[in-house]
Amino acid sequence: MKNNRILLAGVLSPVLLLALPGTLQAGGSDMEPVFTRYARIYQAPTVDLRAEYFRDKPMEEMRDFDGYGVTLDITYPINAMSQIELLAPLYTRGDGVYDNPGELGNGLNLDVEGNGGVREFPSIIYERRFPWLEDRLGANVAWFAGAGMRTAILEAEYKGTEIDRFNHTGHNFQFGLKVDDDIRDGDITLLGNLRYVMFRDSDDINTSGSGSASFEVLYATGAVMFNTYGRVTPVLEAILEYDFENYTAFSLAPELLYSVSDNWDVKLAAPFRLTSDGQKYAAELELTYRF
């Protein structure tokens, strides 16, 4: 636990440092990284469609879980101060070894499929800027809060026979902070997000594998965007997941963002873990359209 706290502090420190005073600007690209979102309010309704291939994604009753998932994210600006985000995990498919001692099928390689995510629930999230804090820090700052609910299941089958159902109950609540700032006359953009998610009455998705249906996870991300290469924007992101028990996953994600037009972006990311916890690596493709 002590080592986890040291790692948590070490990761959060550079993320929070993104909030140091700078020059408040509305400039920079409309593009944003795959995992870390702007604190500034969007200028137009925006749709993000993400496809992820993952390797060894943590699942409470399954190990060596490999597969892919698709998620839809819609953000609608209400005014210059606030916006609404709708998150919809659309589909997950993969396979792994069933790890549920004492149950039928334990140790078998199962196929998993369903119209949902692993620890992502369909959610509605409200976000609002902090004008007084922006004036003090000289950076864009926003808070957000939201709630989600499981609406579909992931069926686990062996040769066409259902063995178990994952993620078939539960809801979550989340809140957090976002910070972003352009520095060096807009050549570099810094972003940081903190998101605290409370899972309640969940099933089979506890990160620590303790069997508890209620648990919390802190997600912290930080990103550096290099905006001086025309339509191509290189990005480096750091990603932390911490569950206050015995799960700490830290990953780095090099990325390339490509602006096809003023409305279309194509993003590629390759996160890989630096800790024993968390998925080994992934490949992310995100398509963004601004209306």
Summarize the structure.
With 291 residues, this protein is mostly beta strands. It has helices at residues 2-17, 131-137; strands at residues 46-55, 62-77, 82-98, 109-114, 123-129, 140-149, 154-158, 161-166, 171-183, 188-200, 215-226, 232-242, 248-259, 264-269, 272-273, 281-290.
Structure overview:
The longest helix is centred in the first third of the chain and has 16 residues. With 291 residues, the protein is mostly beta strands. A twelve-stranded antiparallel beta barrel has the order 1-2-3-5-6-9-10-11-12-13-14-16. It contains two helices and 16 strands. The termini are far apart. A hairpin with a 2-residue loop joins strand 7 and strand 8. It has a single domain, classed as monomeric porin ompg (Porin, Beta Barrel), CATH 2.40.160.
List keywords for this structure.
16 strands; 8% helix; mainly beta; 54% strand; single chain; Porin; twelve-stranded antiparallel beta barrel
Q: How many beta-strand segments?
A: 16
Low-pLDDT stretches are: 1-28
Mean pLDDT: 88
Total domains = 1
State the helix count. Answer: 2
Helix content range of the residues, please? Answer: under 10%
Question: How are the SSEs placed, and which strands pair?
Answer:
Elements: H1 2-17, E1 46-55, E2 62-77, E3 82-98, E4 109-114, E5 123-129, H2 131-137, E6 140-149, E7 154-158, E8 161-166, E9 171-183, E10 188-200, E11 215-226, E12 232-242, E13 248-259, E14 264-269, E15 272-273, E16 281-290
Antiparallel strand pairs: 1-2, 1-16, 2-3, 3-4, 3-5, 4-7, 5-6, 6-9, 7-8, 9-10, 10-11, 11-12, 12-13, 13-14, 13-15, 14-16
